[in-house]
Amino acid sequence: MRFTSERRLDDGVLEREFTLGEIPGTLWTPESAAPAPLILLGHPPLGLRRMHPRLVARARHAAADGFATATIELPGSGDRPRWDAVEQARAALRRAVEAGEPVSEEIIDALVLPLVDKAVPEWQAALDALLALPEIGGPVGYSGGVISIGIRLAVVEPRIAAAVFFAGSLVPRAMFEEARHVTVPLHVLLQWDDEGNDRQAALDLFDAFGTKEKTLQANMGGHTGVPQFAGDAAAQFFTRHLK
């Protein structure tokens, strides 16, 4: 891991960009001197630069509760090399949506499964590097999307102690079986009127999670209408499980 930039935000949070090999990422740490628990910030494959305003808002909220946060660029996104197979799957998805047709399981599998297979080991490598820093401690949480990446991480990575998932419907059927092996505490956010989300698929996935402690918080509104109190509830969840 090599830090490439550093700036202090007006609330005292330290934001540092880094590279892990060829993978860009960002780390935010609170002002407190003690090693801070870490939350990994998942995000859709839209590029870190485009996602930065939303990510930094989440990081500042977490820092106020004493958490460090970090994220990395997903394969094929942002400044990383284009990934032809995923680009083709995204094009097929766009064509189906624009035509008003159902998104087939073949498209979902081609779009999501290769991304999960490649991204999860990268997240684990980032976690190795982050936990080696003196200002970062444990335990570790995962927050956000892509939900299938979060599912795989929660299953294969023993350092993940709790997770907050943002419900989304583009979940391969194979991930439902993996969801049955998730045992860490979960808090799932669902926007009831999300125009891009199959509500029943999200409910079915929640039902599939194998953990004994899982909470579903459903709120009225579209994809970007998550109320502030829903974010507060997710923050309280992490405070219970990571501190």
Layout of strands and helices, then pairs:
Elements: E1 2-8, E2 14-20, E3 23-29, E4 36-41, H1 48-64, E5 68-72, H2 84-98, H3 105-131, E6 136-144, H4 147-156, E7 160-166, H5 173-179, E8 186-191, H6 199-208, E9 214-219, H7 228-242
Helix pairs in contact: 2-3, 3-4
Helix segment tally: 7
Q: Structural class from helices and strands?
A: alpha/beta
Strand adjacency order, main sheet: 1-2-3-5-4-6-7-8-9
Q: How much helix, percentage-wise, in residues?
A: 40-55%
- Give the radius of gyration: 17 Å
CATH superfamily (homologous) name:
Alpha/Beta hydrolase fold, catalytic domain
- CATH topology name, in short, is Rossmann fold
Number of domains: 1
Mean pLDDT equals 92
Instruction: Name the overall outline.
Output: globular
What's the SSE pattern?
Answer: EEEEHEHHEHEHEHEH
Overview in brief:
This protein is of the alpha/beta class. The protein has helices spanning about 50-65, 85-100, 105-130, 145-155, 175-180, 200-210, 230-240, and strands spanning about 1-10, 15-20, 25-30, 35-40, 70, 135-145, 160-165, 185-190, 215-220.
